Amino acid sequence: MVIIYQKLMLESLQNNGVLYFEGVLENIVEELSLHLDEDIENVAMTLDLFTKSGLIQLNDSNDIEMLQVPALIDQETNWSKYKRNTRNKEDVKKLDNVQLLSNHCPTEIEIELKSEIKIESEIKIESESEKEHDADSEYKKLTDFYQGNFGVISQIISEDIKFNLKDYGYDLVYESMKRAIFRQKQYAYSVQILKSWSKNNIKTLSDVEADDNKFSRSKTTGTDDKSDWTWAEKKAGFREV
């Protein structure tokens, strides 16, 4: 329960200590259980314990307020202050070293080397800029797809899509959302699909196709023992193909 409580605190950081009830599932306990990948009963017990302890509060909108987080965000530990001061001193030392060498007349080789370093640096910056542009473009496609099929997107769902894009890649996130739509399910169903693929080491669309074929063969021969099904698949009574 302490681990689950710590997970809840981390999840609430981006909203100043508040965990919003999105209405995707029946209640916030089920939503948190799905998001944290924890058992519903354990999440419910954790919320009950820390609510009684005065560390968690449930407001009228069924949102959960982590009462310790706002205070912790504004605090800076002595170790953090020490590290910050140390970094400042190191920056001053580096500046002093540069000033001592400023009278040195660079040779032709040094000038050429600096030019090459500058070019490599510019190429690296340009490459990183292109990657960021591609990631932003893919993120926009996914959020547009969400709003066109699931409805108005919230901040939490928007952030979740961004994390999934980083963890699983555009192709798998898009494919999982399509499958949720075809099954007439909510967005949370696509998250379960992604977790199931990750658990089975499925990282590309080719892996997905191979897994689908394997599942189809097992359905035909009746050899699927459901041992590797996720909790959501067992509850639904079928496995995504």
If you had to describe this structure to a student in words, what would you say it looks like?
The protein has 241 residues and is mainly alpha-helical. Helices cover 69% and strands 3% of the residues. The protein has helices spanning 2-12, 28-36, 40-52, 69-73, 78-100, 108-149, 155-168, 170-182, 187-199, 205-221, 231-236; strands at 18-19, 56-58, 64-66. The chain has a 3-stranded antiparallel β-sheet. Strand 2 and strand 3 form a beta hairpin. It is extended, with a radius of gyration of 25 Å.
Throw out a few tags for this protein.
single chain, 241 residues, mainly alpha, three-stranded antiparallel β-sheet, 11 helices, 3% strand, extended
What is the compact description of this entry?
By secondary structure, the protein is mostly helical. Helices cover 69% and strands 3% of the residues.
Query: Which structural category fits the helices and strands?
Result: mainly alpha
Helices, by number, come to: 11
Low-confidence spans: none
Share in helix: 55-70%
The whole-angstrom Rg is 25 Å
Q: Note the main sheet.
A: 3 strands, antiparallel
Q: What's the SSE pattern?
A: HEHHEEHHHHHHHH
Write the layout of secondary structure elements.
Blueprint: H1 2-12, E1 18-19, H2 28-36, H3 40-52, E2 56-58, E3 64-66, H4 69-73, H5 78-100, H6 108-149, H7 155-168, H8 170-182, H9 187-199, H10 205-221, H11 231-236
Antiparallel strand pairs: 1-3, 2-3
Helix pairs in contact: 2-3, 6-7, 6-8, 7-8, 8-9
